[in-house]
Write the structure tokens for this entry.
Amino acid sequence: VQLQASGGGLVQAGGSLRLSCAASGRSLSGYTMGWFRQAPGNEREFVAAVTWRGRSTYYADSVKGRFTISRDSAANTVYLQMNSLKPEDTAVYYCAAAPGLRPTRDKRDFTSWGQGTLVTVSS
């Protein structure tokens, strides 16, 4: 499956952005979908994940209560709504797909990755 992330940009602290991840090549049915981010000098870290039917979501503690992950099966797209953004949220955000029904937040389980979209939060 090919993934295309979009929606990044420059926003002031306290603002909002919505990232999108459009899939092509096959349906996302049967995949856990996730968002990860990587700031300069840091390792890529888990942000959020949603199970293939969208019934369960998982979040990193640092974004819980501010970010919401969702998926639109008809559009074959996953979203990340980011509110109350902080300068420490600045990073390149990647969407990824993990095959199988078992929910996961381990990046080693994600076999397909989008190209990343840059989010910059100014103070």
Remarks:
- The CA atoms of residues 4 and 115 lie 7 Å apart.
- The chain has a mean pLDDT of 94.
- The longest strand covers residues 91-99.
- The two ends are 37 Å apart (CA to CA).
